Amino acid sequence: MIYLVGSNLEFDGVKTLVLNEIKFNKFSVNLAEFETLVLTSKNSVNALRFNQISPTDLQIYSIGEGTSHAASEFGFAQIYTAKNAHGNDFAAEIAPFIKGKKTLFLRALETASSVGEILRKSGVNLTQIIAYENVFKPLNEEQKPPKNSAIIFTSPSAVRNFTRNFGWDESYKAVSIGLTTAKELEAFASPIVSAQQNINACVSLAKTLL
Length: 210
Description:
Blueprint: E1 2-5, E2 14-17, E3 20-24, E4 36-39, H1 42-50, E5 59-62, H2 65-74, E6 79-81, H3 87-98, E7 102-108, H4 115-121, E8 125-136, E9 150-153, H5 156-166, E10 173-176, H6 179-185, E11 192-193, H7 199-207
Helix pairs in contact: 1-2, 3-4, 5-6
């Protein structure tokens, strides 16, 4: 059986385990005061919507296609989708484009990468707002995946929430959406990292493991 952790998307033949919920923080910001906006998750876009902040004509730097799609749907038009979907590599890629520019970074409370630190050290005029946080949401023990399951993890927090809830069985096969998530798994598993940083690719990879 294949299990998906860290996303509420559903796929045929895949059981989705929702072990967290996103809590959006209340904040106020005038986007017109900034030249660029850095997005590492569609949750950042949803945080703007939650706070009823309207899009403006500023340049968006997005970590991946999913986040770019969310930004476009929200109303942003100038969107650069990075070639690198891994946190620190993403920051290193976009830093030369936004050096010296007044930039807003909407981030999570806890992050596994150092995007903000890398951008600041690269000379970006950076303002960071903690826009949301991942809150642990426990599941019943009956929902624990059986032995030999393939388990897809879409973020480091998904790994932490899963092991906090269910522990880890050595027979599990771990699929990671990216390098940062894989690093979280390496203490107790040998994860296989998807060549593409999207959930569809992870599901296809997981199906080859069963």
